[in-house]
Amino acid sequence: MASVAAAEPAPTSDGLDAIPPTESEPLLGGPGDAIQKPNAPMINNLWLGTGWIAQIGNLLLLVVIWAGVFTHPTMKLVSPHPLLQSLGVFTLSQAILLLQPTDQPETKLLGQRGHAVLQLLSFLLFAAGISVIETNKVVSHGVHLHSAHGWLGAVTAALLLAQYVFGLLMWAFPAVLGGVDAAKALWKYHRYTGYTLFLLVLATVAAAAATPYNKGILKIKLWSILLAVALILIGTFPRIQLKKLGIQRHHTQ
C-alpha cells in the first residue's frame, strides 16, 4: 500500500500557522485565542479575546467610584483617596492586559516596556492615594487600620512594592539575580504573584464598601463594585497563557 504523508498544518485565516496547544493555549479557550497577531498594533492587546469584558469592568468601576465621590460632599484629605486608587487599579489592569497576549521576542520586549511604564504609573497613583489618606489620619488623629479595607490595603501595598521591585530587577537588572537566564527562570513566579496580588487589589476595593466613609457619605452599593470586579476577572484570567506559568496540557489525539 502506498504511504500517505502527514499533511502540513494549514495557515489560519489571520496569518498565524497552527500553533501547538501547549505553546499558546490560554487558561480558557483554544490555542492562539489570546495571542497578539504578527504586525498587529500593541494597543489591540487591551481588548483582545475576552479583554473587552475586562475593560467594561474597568470603566464601570471608575464610573461607580467617581460618581460616588462627585455626587456627594467632597473632603480635601479623603476624597482624593478613592479617586487615585481607582485610577491605580485601572492602570494596573491595563499593564496586565497589554502584556498578556505577547508571544514573540519583539512583541514581548515592547510589551514589557509598556507594562513597566504602566506599572510605574500605577505605583505612583497608589502611593499618592495612600499618602492622602495617611495625611488625613495624622491631621485628624484618626485610628489607623481600623477596618478590613485598611488591613487589606496595607498588606497589599507592601506586597505590591515587593512585586514592583522584583519585576524591575528581572527586567532591567538581571545580573542582580544571577544573569539573564536566571532572571528568565523567575518570570513565571512573578506572574503567579502578580495575578494573586491583582486579586488582593480587587478584594481591597470591594472591602471599601464596608468602610464608614462609604456607608455614611458615598453610599456606593457593594453589588456594583462586585459586578465590576467580576467583569474584570472574567475578562482577564481566561487570557492567561499556560506556558507563561510553566504549565503544559497534554492533548490526546
From TrEMBL:
A Pfam match: Cytochrom_B561
CC annotations in GO: membrane
Chain positions covered by the region annotation Disordered: 1-34
Transmembrane segments: 46-71, 83-102, 114-133, 153-180, 192-210, 222-240
InterPro entries, alphabetized: CYB561D1/2 (IPR045150), Cyt_b561/ferric_Rdtase_TM (IPR006593)
Keyword presence, Cytoplasm: no
GO function terms (MF aspect): metal ion binding; transmembrane monodehydroascorbate reductase activity
Subcellular compartments: Membrane
Major subcellular site: membrane
Ranges for domain Cytochrome b561: 46-243
Cofactor section: heme b
CDD domains: Cyt_b561_CYB561D2_like
Keyword Transmembrane helix (UniProt): yes
Membrane topology: Multi-pass membrane protein
Record keywords, A-Z: Electron transport, Heme, Iron, Membrane, Metal-binding, Transmembrane, Transmembrane helix, Transport
Protein name: Eukaryotic cytochrome b561-domain-containing protein
Record organism: Lasiosphaeria ovina
